[in-house]
Amino acid sequence: MSLDRRRINGPDESFPPVFALDGLQGTLASPRKDRSPTDIRPIFLQPGLISQANGSAYIETAKTKIACAVYGPRQSRNAAYSETGRLNVEVKFTPFSCARRRAPMRDAEDRSIAVAIHQALVSSVRLDLLPKSTIDIFITIIESDGLDGCVASGSVAASAALADAGIELLGLVTSCAAAIVGRDIWLDPTEGEARFSNGTLVLACMPALKKITSVWQTGEMQVTEALGCMDACQEKCTEIHSVVAQALLESPSLK
Amino acid sequence: MASHRVLPGQPISVPPNAPAPQLGGGIYVRDSQLRASLVGEVQQEGPTLSISRVRPRPPAINSVVLGSVTRLSPLQATISISVVDGVPLPAGEEFTGVIRSQDVRATEKDRVKIADSFRGGDVVRGVVISLGDARSYFLTTALNNLGVIFAMSEAGKVMVPVSWKEMRCPETGRLEKRKCAKPE
């Protein structure tokens, strides 16, 4: 880890205090304790919380908390002429977002999440209407409970923020994660559940158009399991879509 | 048309035997189904269906823009565009426009002198004629109602236009050359 001299750096190495066994250690409780395998964590979504941004959204699903701000469309700087607009996604973790402190610098993990969210969103935005322009999406992960959950919730928040910003979209993007634990499909896995799973899958789609925008799979998974995950995720995405719709319809910032 | 809020991707129903409406902003067609692409209420004006959101947007061809002159050269004037179609852009998110000497006025194009048409700091009303190159949008002021709408004299006073190519300082009475916009 390189040192950022502009900041007050803590000790080189630090370790979180050790508490009694929680969900991250030992084995997973199977079957799932607090919710059924096909349940997702409850979603709280609020568009328009960041006043200086063109559009914004805040999403909270149990321990995953993400704020998203959309700026632009603004003129692309230092870029060649392009007939279509560009979508720029940046993801930042707060230092206290994970169990172990994250140094306030961009690393490979931020970027892989940013790429996954970009992939989920890019086909939903009508970039052909915005020549020479850039839309900036800044996603701050305030608290993280599993990367898959961050990608899914981040995509939902970013899509809501784009709608809040008045940027033309083909449809709202919703996203859901699934994990294969043993032989079962567990939707919306937490960090601990994802760690003990064989593989995970994040699916993003536009329920209004019945189109899938991205599928992101990691780990090991049978073809039938992957297809089962995709079906289960798509079904949940339709439910998440109604949550997003409700939030946007009731949002006072869109008056 | 019932006025209720629609969401991006939501189908918009039209009466089955009505003529196909013209599409305004915020609506698109996919698989011969009209759908919304913005959050808002569908409005109908004559044959045109649209969803309007008053939001800052980038200039498009034929947009009327306001901006201030930031840079002059014998060939062109550079404008920092701050208002597009009457909607102000957020501070710091201005677009760059360029008025080339042949786009200043419609007549005697080859005799145009940029220095006799604009000065730094003038506020100019123009129309976008092209998306231009990677850096800037191309603007024109070759219409009566386009050109300088606000300018300060050398004495630092707001000048008043006296003809389409001159403005007068109210303090010193001196005339300065500008390509003036016809007051509305």
From TrEMBL, chain A:
Coiled coil: none annotated. The keyword Zinc does not apply. One of its GO terms (biological process) is poly(A)-dependent snoRNA 3'-end processing. Residues 40-168, 172-231 form the Exoribonuclease phosphorolytic domain. GO terms for cellular component: cytoplasmic exosome (RNase complex); nuclear exosome (RNase complex); nucleolus. InterPro entries: ExoRNase_PH_dom1, ExoRNase_PH_dom2, ExoRNase_PH_dom2_sf, PNPase/RNase_PH_dom_sf, Ribosomal_Su5_D2-typ_SF, RNase_PH. The keyword Nucleus applies. It is found in: Cytoplasm; Nucleus. Pfam families: RNase_PH, RNase_PH_C. Its main location: cytoplasm. It comes from the Eukaryota. GO terms for molecular function: RNA binding. Keywords: Cytoplasm, Exosome, Nucleus, RNA-binding, rRNA processing. Belongs to the RNase PH family. This is 3' exoribonuclease family, domain 1-domain-containing protein. It comes from Mycena belliarum.
TrEMBL record, chain B:
It holds the Pfam family EXOSC1. GO terms for molecular function: RNA binding. InterPro entries: Csl4 (IPR039771), EXOSC1_C (IPR019495), NA-bd_OB-fold (IPR012340). It is found in: Nucleus, Nucleolus. Keywords: Cytoplasm, Exosome. Gene3D superfamilies: Nucleic acid-binding proteins. Residues 91-131 form the Exosome complex component CSL4 C-terminal domain. The keyword Cytoplasm applies. One of its GO terms (biological process) is RNA processing. GO terms for cellular component: cytoplasm; nuclear exosome (RNase complex); nucleolus. The keyword Zinc-finger does not apply. It comes from the Eukaryota. Residues 1-25 are annotated as: Disordered. This is Exosome complex component CSL4 C-terminal domain-containing protein.
